[in-house]
Amino acid sequence: MESKFNARYLAIRYGFLALLAGLLIFFSIFANGFAGPRSAVFIFQSVAITGILALGVTCTLVVDGFDLSIGSVATSSLMLSAYMLVILEQNAFVAVVVCLIMGAFVGFLNGILIVRMKVPDLLATLGMMFLLIGLQRVPTEGRSISTGMRLPSGEVAEGVFSTSFLWIGRHRFDFFLEKLIPVSVLIFLGVAFLVWLFLELTRHGRLMYAIGSNERAASLAGTNVNFYKILAYMISGVTASIGGILLSARLGRGDIASGNNLLLDSVAAALIGFAVLGAAKPNALGTAIGALFVGVLLQGLTMMNAPYYTQDFVKGGVLVIALVFTFALTARSHK
Amino acid sequence: MKKITCKIRKIEKSFGSNKVLKSIDLDLEAGKVAVLMGANGAGKSTLVKILCGVHQADSGSIELFDQAFKPQKPVDAFKEGVVTVHQSINDGVVPDLDVASNLMLDRLTEKEFGLFINQKVLKINAKAIAETMGISINVETPVSELGVADRQLIAIARAMARKPKVLILDEPTSSLSSAEADQLFTVLEKLRKMNVAILYISHRMSDIRRIADNIITMRDGKISGQFSEKPLDYEAAVTAMIGHKMTEVDVETVSKGEIILEFKNVKLEPESSNINLTINKNEVVAITGLLGSGKSQLASILYGISKPSQGSIFLNGKRLENTSPQEAIKDGIHMSPKDRASNAIFQSFNIESNLTVPFTKNYSWLSFLRFKLLAEVAKTKIKDIGIVCQSEFDNIETLSGGNQQKVIVGRWLLQSCKLLILDEPFQGVDIKARRDIGKYIRESAGERATLVFVSELDEALEIADRVLVMHEKSFVGEHQNKNIDLEKILIEISGQVSTNSKNWNANGI
Known about the structure:
By secondary structure, chain A is mainly alpha-helical. Chain A has a single domain, classed as Orthogonal Bundle (ABC transporter involved in vitamin B12 uptake, BtuC). In chain A, α4 runs antiparallel to α5. In chain B, α15 packs parallel to α16. Chain B is built from 18 helices and 23 strands. In chain B, the strands form five sheets. In chain B, strands 6-7-8-3-9-10 form a six-stranded mixed β-sheet, with helices on both faces. Chain B is 32% helix and 25% strand. The longest helix of chain B has 16 residues. By secondary structure, chain B is an alpha/beta fold. The interface between A and B is medium-sized, with 25 and 31 residues.
């Protein structure tokens, strides 16, 4: 192997972070109002939900799986929390717990489909995705849920989004400035920290990476492959339901049309994460930075008056560049 | 009269600052089999890759029939008639296609072949190729349904379809049984008569004895010896390859301890004969036999992956009832599986992580990995087995095959066990690493029973106190490793001994 500190090594390891720094400097100079704490928090807030989902996908990518159902788990969680609060008139705590259990259960089902029924991961979670998209529309006959809505039975729903539930989505903590940091941002950072801790510092994380690298060898080394695979999908399901709860608490109603972009955005963030620090593998830190990267870019462009319809194009561009970083550069350096 | 097909002169190649080939001069004669020997890392693969167009030489020249030959990519090489069969079997076949399409694959890529495939013509041509190779498989069978050995033969047959002038075979017999290897050698005989120059890379002495017209040895990127005078001096060749004289490794057989493992009337298959067998503490027992003789099946039964047809196995007097590797490890059975690339190596992990995978629990606190302890443990093991590396954080892929194998064997010696099983621990391992591993296994054998499954007799004799021979799912011989009767073992391995007895007992002699 060549010297560790040659140009390609530096490019692979720090190229993407340098690009991020460059963007920050560029927008700070040219986009009026970009540099500043409020703008920074806004970026964090805009990527919080996507980022949380992306961290879940990262766990499934680590075991060489894939979870296509996260977007629909999140929207199901959104609808389920609204249903619990508005129609069943439960309190915020019950609504949150029920949503988390639903996420874990869907993840468990995905896991069982994959390890026991041997359905390929993409197909199993694709099926689950369709199932949930359909299921979440059934109880309300396809309508959004809000206080005062007329139920299929003819009654009027009297429950409300309690203030404690809305607090999750709308409260901002004081941090030097008054009302600066929203709850969702703290939850995003918290989930990122926990997933990082789990994947990088615990033996369970290492065994999950082992499964992703060589499943057979992991099994012959005494690893309970099925357990860890199911666990990965359950983590993914739970993080997706957290995302859904945050979305619901932010919107304050069970909006049937929300969360369309969640799946693709979060998968993109997780894949962009491969390029951070030249990891070339799914990792929590990379995923969080990947999500932020997209947020910075969109925020900056918006402030420079780029039209909204260019957003997906920009995201796609970032993803392709990140993938080139990951695969072309690292693959060549291994030769 | 000598007819030189391929003349290699002063080939040099470096990767970065690492000089891999240093002024290689080599002639390949038409109709001769040149065996290329060398320890892992000697430069064999790089030389082959230059010949087949994967790498380009930094300087020097290659002539093919007195014409300059400078392949820029693999396609160039085989259009000129230099054809290579690589060691990794699945590089040579497309599993989803049938045998006929596989055999004709290279024709399909040619423009002259036309747009549409004439299935009839395809099959006729494929059959013709299969016949010259003596392959009796139906050409309509999908390759995915074939075993490893058949795939290998097809990969080789595919190379034949290209009508090679120079044929390079990289360890072609490493996954073949002797009957299948025989088939290959028959084909090589034919090619020899057709004046093809053959470069044959192998570690197997038995193959080399059988096929070599001349032997070329490489060491440290240089040709360290060429032997062409008959009879070939094999010992000198091995000496030239490893740099010091190959001494017969003398095994000091040891006195054995209490019984660790006991087989009582075990049958691998309903029709096979009963196995009664005891393995003791402190002894190393090698089980040898051909591919398919039941060695791997026995290993997988002990490791909880499969079950015997009948009978029971006892470990320290307790009946073995494990149903997964996980449970087997808990019972104190450790197994290093064969074929490390697909069964043992974690490519994206470093040496430390590869070593410690099965025992992360022992090196963590409340599930949190204790990184300092892990590094220490890895360092100690690296020193003990002599793994050549920069540090314990090197990626496993940067190591040579022999050193990778040391990591895999070392993995199972991190924690003590009652029974250590090593399935083909010397597969694709150079002689130096093989000696290191063998020595370490014997040194550490005191507190456990050790079972080693090998198909090479030399390897068994190097490591074992006792050698057992398997044939067709049954045991057919037992030998103490002292003044051993080689001829008798060879007869037993090849199955020329009567196995009428319905019972077989080996409880040490």
